[in-house]
Amino acid sequence: MIGLLCFVLAVLASPFKSRLRLEAEHAALRHQLVVLRRKLHGRVRLTNHDRWFFIQLYRWFPSILSVLTIIQPETLIRWHRSGFRCYWRWKSRSLGGRPQIDTELRVLIRRISIENPLWGAPRIHGELLKLGFEVAQSSVAKYVVKRRKPPSRGWWTFLHNHAPEIAAMDFFVVPTIGFDLLYAFVIVRIDRRELVWINVTKNPTAEWVARQITEAFPWDEAPGYMIRDRDRIYGSVVTRRLRVMGIRDRPTAPASPWQNGFAERLIGSIRRECVDHVIVSGEAHLRRILRFYARYYNEVRTHRSLDKDAPVSRAVQRTGSIKSSPILGGLHHRYARV
């Protein structure tokens, strides 16, 4: 009786169904008959072709769920979801390209980046090269915490040809905890970016500057040219000392600090990486800090312009466990294999 009632209701509702929907339900019924005729004994065995047929039909006409009898509607929906996952897994498959970085190396990049917030991807890449890792800088940039834009360069052609014979010097001011002003004097060799001299004084004079130049260079290792600005402290005593040592004085044009770009760049690095993070108590304190930084700058810190090497060249280490040593109280770290 209930079956007859369902048949009558289906006949009454059939005029309101679309022709395509009826054809889909008829196709589902016919295919179920084909599957049942193929059955020998035991449970119904469905092939992948059968599953694909029902899934595609369900995708176009979800109403066929009402006429399925040999499988449960939940089974059909599960097949559809499994096919969806397989399809997108196939769409998302690897098509080759650059191999993935090992988890250990990614963790190390992030560790170095966290321990050294002042370092960018180029500096970290230089450290990794010295630790024996063959990795591209672009890959390192994906995993660092912060990024920094590479600085601009100037005087490239001239300095490329004359860098071994050029040095530059300049002053910068550092306030103390008591609001006194200390004057730090630096001399840098252009070819290897080596910080050859750094010292501090409260009262800079021309005689003091001349003495620093003498102490910075042995008489047989003096550069051919010295770049400086037009500060009045470089008086006749300084120019005469340069001439006696065989160094040709090259003052910059007025109001043109970019012409002494290497010294300015060095001072900027000292500020960003050292004195901006330290409260100076006095002259001796600042001198000690700057000498620690000068040792780190020359022997540890990697430079883009030196192919990620230090001014005093560091050997590449490929074996051993990696250990870090804090520098300047943990402001920077040195990484080496032991």
Largest sheet: 5 strands, mixed
The strand count comes to 7
- Beta-strand share of residues: 5-15%
- Class based on secondary structure composition and strand pairing: alpha/beta
Unreliable residue runs? 1-13
CATH superfamily of the largest domain: Ribonuclease H-like superfamily/Ribonuclease H
Please state how the strands of the largest beta sheet are arranged side by side.
3-2-1-4-5
Distance between the termini: 88 Å
Write up what this structure looks like.
The chain is of the alpha/beta class. It has 3 domains: 15-86, no CATH class; 103-148, no CATH class; 156-299, Nucleotidyltransferase, domain 5 (2-Layer Sandwich), CATH 3.30.420. 45% of the residues lie in helices and 14% in strands. The chain contains 12 helices and 7 strands. The protein has helices at residues 2-13, 19-38, 48-60, 73-91, 103-115, 121-130, 137-143, 156-162, 206-216, 236-244, 261-273, 283-299, and strands spanning 166-175, 181-189, 194-201, 225-228, 248-251, 322-327, 332-337. The strands form 2 sheets. Strands 3-2-1-4-5 form a 5-stranded mixed β-sheet, sandwiched between helices. The termini are far apart. The relative contact order is 0.09. Mean pLDDT is 83; it is low at 1-13.
Keywords:
single chain; 338 residues; alpha/beta; Nucleotidyltransferase, domain 5; 3 domains; 5-stranded mixed β-sheet; two-stranded antiparallel sheet; 7 strands; disordered N terminus
